[in-house]
Amino acid sequence: MVEIHHLSEEEQLQLIRESCRLSEVMTSLFDADKMNVAALGNVVRQLHVHHIARFTDDPAWPQPIWGKLPAKEYEPEDFAERVKRLQNALVGEGFRVL
C-alpha cells in the first residue's frame, strides 16, 4: 500500500480506530501535550503512519521534529522500556505482541 485511500473502507476505519487508540495510550503513558499523527511518506513509498508524542518543552516545539535538530537515538534500555510500556498498555485490545 502507498496511500490511505488505497485501503478498503473497512481497512481505513480499522486504521483510524487503531491510530486513535494508540494516540490515547501514548498521551496517557508519556503525558504528552500534543499527539502528532501523520502519514508522511516522501522518503519511503510504502504506507506508514507516524505517532509522535510532543511536549511544549521539547527543543523543536512548536516546529516539526524533522530537520530542526540532529536525530538522537534512544539508549537501548530506554527504548526497550518504552516499547514494553506500550505493549503492556495495548495487549488485550485486539493487539498482540509478535
Structure write-up:
This protein has 98 residues and is α+β, with helices and mostly antiparallel strands. Helices cover 38% and strands 10% of the residues. The chain has helices spanning 9-30, 76-90, and strands at residues 34-38, 50-54. Helix 1 (9-30) crosses helix 2. The chain is globular. The chain starts with 8 loop residues before the first helix and ends in an 8-residue tail after the last helix.
Summarize the structure.
By secondary structure, this protein is of the alpha+beta class. Helices cover 38% and strands 10% of the residues.
Keywords, please?
single chain; 98 residues; alpha+beta; two-stranded antiparallel sheet; 2 helices; 10% strand; globular
Spatial extent as radius of gyration = 15 Å
Rounded to the nearest angstrom, the distance between the terminal CA atoms is: 21 Å
Strand content: 5-15%
Average pLDDT level: 89
Characterize the main sheet.
Answer: 2 strands, antiparallel
Which regions are unreliable across 5 or more consecutive residues at pLDDT < 50?
A: none
User: What characteristic shape results from the CA principal axes?
Assistant: globular
Helix fraction, binned, reads: 25-40%
The tally of beta strands, per DSSP, is 2
Give the neighbour order of strands across the main sheet.
1-2
Q: Output the structural class.
A: alpha+beta
